[in-house]
Amino acid sequence: MLQAVADLNLSDSYGKVGVPKQLVVKKDASSIPDAVANFGLKLPIVAKPLVNDGSKKSHELSLAYDRYSLQKLDPPLVLQEFVNHGGVLFKVYIVGEAIKVVRRFSLPDVTKRELSKTAGVYRFPRVSCAAASADDADLDPCIAELPPRPLLEKLAKELRRRLGLRLFNLDMIREHGTRDRFYVIDINYFPGYGKMPEYEHIFTDFLLSLVKGKLKKRSG
Questions:
Q1: Is-contact 142 179, C-beta < 8 A?
Q2: What single string gives the DSSP state of each residue in the chain?
Q3: Separation between Cα atoms, residue 67 and residue 45, nearest integer Å
Q4: Distances in Å between the alpha carbon of 155 and those of 38, 116, 150, 196?
Q5: Model's pTM, two decimal places?
Q6: Maximum CA extent, the chain
Q7: CA 175 – CA 152 distance, rounded (Å)
Q8: What distances in angstroms separate CA 220 from CA 137, 206, 215, one per listed residue?
């Protein structure tokens, strides 16, 4: 699904949206270090399970600091270059034409000094869950500023068309030190909307719009 974002290559006066460099590994953990080197992925690397069944494992992220610790990972996985983003991500909920954005705490930035002195794999369960809300936190305005609305509307419109979805959400980050360089790091189809503020009204309006659209087609 992230390939749709990469293919879109969205860039306008409001910002640029891409995806981090990533690699899918389906088996054989011992081959991961060489695969990462050959593909040119830079450390640190985020490992995400390919499992998508709502289990605890499906929500667990791992951060690998050195090449040899990659062998400790448990495929199948998506390996993704880690992008420093100020420890905050934006959950962008799309419900039909409606867009709602919330802030969530995320993985902290990794400095070059930390990377050179740290080894191993660190696991992070349930990153960016509702309990990690950053909407009321005292954040640096450069980190807390939401992505521009026109950019989100253009992105959502294109992804609705390319993915054929009306109900989905994006995990989006802003590269630390920039104002307009964004990455989509995950897409979820039909996510848990109970975590989205005012979801009852937004979802009701969406369902009513579907009914009105069907009635209009019948009467036409």
A1: yes
A2: -HHHHHHH-EEETTEEEE---EEEE-S-GGGHHHHHHHHTPPSSEEEEES--SSSTGGG-EEEE-STGGGGGS-SSEEEEE----TTEEEEEEEETTEEEEEEEE-PPP--HHHHHH--SEEEETTTT-GGGB-TTS---HHHHPPPPHHHHHHHHHHHHHHH--SEEEEEEEE-TT-SSEEEEEEEEES--GGGSTTHHHHHHHHHHHHHHHHHHHHH-
A3: 9
A4: 31, 36, 9, 19
A5: 0.89
A6: 68
A7: 16
A8: 50, 21, 8
- Reply yes or no: is the peptide bond before residue 191 cis, omega within 30 of 0: no
Q: What is the mean pLDDT of each run of 10 residues along the chain (220 residues)?
A: 92 95 93 94 93 64 92 93 96 94 92 93 73 79 94 96 94 96 92 81 90 81
